[in-house]
Amino acid sequence: MSALALLLGALVICVALAVLACIVFVLIWLVRLLAQPR
Asked: What per-residue string of b and e applies to 10-25 under the rule 16 or more CB within 10 Å gives b?
């Protein structure tokens, strides 16, 4: 039971980190796209 809870917690943390990384990547891409001189 404890191992299952630990595995579930690790999975949630991994998913949260992946989502945060995607959001940061998209934000940086948008900033670079908007910062380009027209």
From this structure: eeeeeeeeeeeeeeee
User: Can you tell me the mean pLDDT for 4-23?
Assistant: 97
**Cα 18 from chain centroid?**
3
Domain boundaries along the sequence of the chain: 1-38
Would you report the helix, strand and coil content of the chain in percent, each value rounded to 5? 90, 0, 10
User: pLDDT tens across 23-38, in order?
Assistant: 999 999 999 999 987 7
